[in-house]
Amino acid sequence: MNSILVQLRRDLVAHADPQTQKTFQRFFKEQVKYYGVKTPIVGKIAKNYWKQVKTMCKNAIFELCEELYRSDYTEEAFVVSLWLPNYIDNLGPQDLEIFKVWIERYINNWAKCDGFCNHTIGDLIQRYPQVLCEIKSWARSENRWLRRASAVSLIVPAKKGDFLNDALDICDGLLVDKDEMVQKGYGWLLKEESRRHQREVFDYVVRNKSVMPRTALRYAIELMPKELKVLAMKKP
What we know:
Blueprint: H1 2-14, H2 18-23, H3 39-53, H4 58-70, H5 74-83, H6 96-106, H7 110-127, H8 132-137, H9 144-152, H10 155-159, H11 164-174, H12 180-193, H13 198-208, H14 214-220, H15 226-233
Helix pairs in contact: 1-3, 3-5, 5-7, 7-9, 9-12, 11-12, 12-14
């Protein structure tokens, strides 16, 4: 395992791009730790090492992923987000507790949160919908990234029109959240659900717009026709 970490990190250092290093931080309000490697290059590096990693036992893979998270480098977290969706056949509902711990301990910016939750946890939801009960409880967490995770974990299923009622339940729990990252997270979820459920999402927004933060509202109606946007933005 240590040899994989050493080589992977050497590759990331070797592929650091000066221009990416200059611009990386501007995408985040929080101070982030990064090598400055372009996303497609990180993807190629992750894919290359996955050929070796996938032959390891599950506990060893999880230990390796946690070591990558522990470093706090954004690119190393992205490697985890690229590996685990390829391992979905070996994941089960029992793994959600480990994933929750990772979010609480290691997720500290939107890129780490969304990268991990959109696919790894989103894929887990689609295979095991019973985990939604636990994920809904995250909306009540004191941890801002766990609250955002409760919403963005449903982004990919929402694009397909799945789990609308569960998505609205999560949005109910986050409705008056004061954290902008959480507002953007559940607003994004509503936007994706609106692809297949425009009327239901519009009705939800109108019903709650007196208390819904404008940030969340704007995200939610982004894909709607102009006339519905005007109605939704009109003050109650």
